[in-house]
Amino acid sequence: MQRACAAALLSTQKVVIKNPGHSNDDIAAMGIIRSLGATITEVDRETITIESSFLSDPAAIVSKEAAVNCGESGLSIRMFTPIVSLCNNEVLINGEGSLVTRPMDFFDEILPQLGVSIASSNGKLPLKVNGPLQPKNITIDGSLSSQFLTGLLMAFAAAPLTEAVTIRVNDLKSRPYIDLTLDVMKKFGLQVPENNNYETFTFTAAQPETLNLKPETLTYTVEGDWSGGAFLLVAGAIAGDIHVRGLQQTSTQADKKILEALMAANAGIAMDAKGITLHAAPMTAFEFDATDCPDLFPPLVALAANCTGVTVIKGVSRLAHKESDRGLTLQEEFGKMGIRVALDGDLMRVHGGPVKGAQVHSRHDHRIAMACATAALKADGPVTIEEAEAINKSYPDFYDHLKELGATVTGGLEYRDALNEIYSEK
Ligand SMILES: O=C(O)C1=C[C@@H](OP(=O)(O)O)[C@@H](O)[C@H](O)C1
Ligand SMILES: C=C(OP(=O)(O)O)C(=O)O
């Protein structure tokens, strides 16, 4: 959904988005493109339209506001900063909550090489950028996060290119997220660079594709979210039966790999064209490499807590700069539910349950709240999650979905108000 918002901003066509997201991160992305002049209209609960003239005159648009707020979304700030830098006036880029402490020093190093002046607060927010960004051959480090590359790919595709340019990437992590970026770019008619084994991405000389004549409207359907869906699948494996629809099995999303983990744990899982069915079954410890799908750690720990034996998950070093330091947070919060989580360099060892009822804290991290709630389904008593509303960052319907599946959940938050501020009058 966030990528679709960015691509719609860069489109000269009227964009129809089907199945739009409405999480806080989606609201942040919609707020950003509105600050950059886009008009977003709700057609019905399943459809919105976006109209933007950003590419025809980015400077004129940004001079009106000169500030964008990325909320708490890492993807939004890292994707939209290079895009905002296409403008030739100063823009303030800010955010809130955990985003304020997450590393952005990548931009201090890279943007000046592309003709953009930048001021940050020692590599953190707020950022002030002044472009216009001019694509050039550059080499970047992809080991901290793929999100910076996502932003550069979108911005390069939107800029006029007088000659071929190459982004060279060292040690790219979270590769499937780049596949998703390229997939969205393709579906929106942006120039898709030649990807040479995730080491170089080469754009050919071209005007932005979006300036070419196209049909008046472009329709894009947002895929079901495997990252949120992973919690439901694990919930079904622990306390099923459940049937999950809407997760595309041909998706490039990284977190589709949850299926491999469920199979490795001997979960009761069956798939057909209609969806995925989970039955509660005795499960056994498994080994899994989550280096390129780091968001799976929280549901994997909930799964492993319900397996017999010690599960080993690789990729802990990827977790340090998420909404919380997720390796440590998982260790501490699952520890309260009687689950031993040992951290050993890049490896996490999760000792299977039983899971105990306890009072835990989301640490303001959506995936920690959802992991604790999922593990609670088989706990020997109630699990109380403080700051449980953290889920609204990515999956505001999560507790409602658990309730629909028969779990007892008290609490919750109404989301329409924030959304209504985003949509324009029809
Ligand atoms: O591009 C994206 O949508 C994301 C990429 C991943 O980040 P990293 O590339 O930093 O691992 C993932 O953890 C994050 O939640 C979302
Ligand atoms: C959505 C997430 O992160 P980010 O803020 O990095 O986009 C996440 O970690 O699940």
UniProtKB/TrEMBL annotation:
One of its GO terms (biological process) is chorismate biosynthetic process. Pathway: Metabolic intermediate biosynthesis; chorismate biosynthesis; chorismate from D-erythrose 4-phosphate and phosphoenolpyruvate: step 6/7. The keyword Amino-acid biosynthesis applies. Keywords: Amino-acid biosynthesis, Aromatic amino acid biosynthesis, Transferase. Coiled coil: none annotated. Pfam families: EPSP_synthase. It catalyses: 3-phosphoshikimate + phosphoenolpyruvate = 5-O-(1-carboxyvinyl)-3-phosphoshikimate + phosphate. Its EC number is 2.5.1.19. Residues 6-402 form the Enolpyruvate transferase domain. It comes from the Bacteria. GO terms for molecular function: 3-phosphoshikimate 1-carboxyvinyltransferase activity. NCBIfam families: aroA. Belongs to the EPSP synthase family. This is 3-phosphoshikimate 1-carboxyvinyltransferase.
